[in-house]
Amino acid sequence: MSVATTLPLSEMTHADKLRVMEELWDDLCRSPEGVTSPAWHGEVLTARAERVAEGEAKFHDWTEVKARLLRY
SS in 3 state form for the chain? Predict the structure, then answer.
């Protein structure tokens, strides 16, 4: 079964799609043993940790970012 047959993706707003994505992630998080991360995730996390350690990372408040994303 295709997601497109279940969800009217072409009729959904960006905000609707983001809300559905959040619900999917929340559901996946309830059984994390079934979700494996690819090796490149570790590489990205290492690179980001290095940027933090070097003082080069920039951070944004998640509440503000989420609100900005939901406006689209």
Answer: CCHHHHCCHHHCCHHHHHHHHHHHHHHHHCCHHHCCCCHHHHHHHHHHHHHHHCCCCCCCCHHHHHHHHHCC
